[in-house]
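Troubleshooting entry. The earlier prediction with flavin-adenine dinucleotide gave an output that would not parse, so I re-checked the input for stray whitespace and re-submitted. Clean input:
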Amino acid sequence: MKQSSEVAVVGGGIIGSAIAYYLAKAGHRVDLFEAGQIGSGSTRAAAGMLGAHSEYKEFGALLYSFARTSQQLYEEAEADIRALTGIDIERRTGGLLQLVFTAEERARLSDICSLEGVTWLDRAAAEKEVPGLTKSLEGAIHIADDVHVTPAIACRGFCSAAKISGARIHAFTRVEGIAKEDGQYRIQTSKGEWQAEYVVIAGGVWSNALLQRIGLGTPMYPVKGECIAVTNTEIPLSCSLFHDQHYIVPRNNDELIIGATKVRGDWSTEPTSGGIHRVMEKARQMLPGIDKMPFLRSWAGLRPQTIDGKPLIGEHPEMKGLFIAAGHQRNGILLAPVTGKMICDLIDGKAVPEVWMEAFRVDRLHTDEEVLM
Ligand code: FAD
Ligand code: GLY
């Protein structure tokens, strides 16, 4: 017998979990289907930086408002998740220090320096902020609002808060097919059939398999990122360090997260010795003392990259009621709240900024290539 839902969310990473959270809070009947464990895809691999400013190059002036809105939504979500579930998503203030090694680099980053909450520090001021910082700096940009969360916990927080608000969470349940029948969606899962009024595909880079079947081609490819963690009991570090898309992020338990490589088109999730070597080389340039810190572990994850670098968020142009929210590449943790809220607003028929609608249109990247490089 078919079971029924109002909204079926496919994927229990940070994006699907945030969508379930906003929908359930708005009173929708939600069922979330996750093929594995909640948060076990790319989300578990992330560093957790909410880099609306440090990732400015990725957004540009047009989409900065999208990233910034999400960063701000985290404050409210953090408090609400804590109140509902008792879960602390470990949103740590302290911000981020974007290191600048040359005058040319400083000139290239001048657009970030004019944004809210951003301060230029000369070399002496930067060294005062972080003892043990490399001596070869021109200076650094301090970004107060580019704080970080612990991604797996944030994902669990969204998911648990969704559940407390009425969503049903189906882990280890793969969605195998979606078809429209008599005005409803029929959802074939590894544990039986469901019907729903709305479906949201939020399966990260693995969404390709479902998107291809609904005529949207395979618009995503993986960009593998390798990371390591070390123990730091030496250097008091309350902010993340960032340079050239490499970073060192302090967690609250004396761990430093060091990342990450960018390997296009690689679907494997094992870190390689070469990858670890490359991230260590970059980390050493920022914080030379890191070399002596005890090694804890290494891992890798797959960023869901779209061909034009922007996520797919919106409704299928022909299949009304079928939404997609995937392809958040290197910023899915940051962009989870605004994506969840945007999908909820679209389902509720509320206004969403036209510039976001146009930028994230889900049919803009149609291609049938298997893996895009
Ligand atoms: P995922 O987390 O991959 O979740 C998708 C889920 O859908 C998976 O759990 C999968 O099992 C499930 N699924 C897929 N198909 C189906 C199906 N048919 N049926 C049921 N379930 C299905 N972002 C930041 O904002 N800040 C960072 O600091 C940051 N650091 C990163 C560091 C690294 C090394 C990497 C690799 C990524 C980083 N990211 C960061 C990016 C971030 O991890 C991703 O953008 C984000 O996790 C994407 O979330 P998602 O929910 O779309 O995908
Ligand atoms: N946003 C950090 C990363 O993707 O590595």
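This one parsed fine. The CA atoms of residues 232 and 254 lie 5 Å apart.
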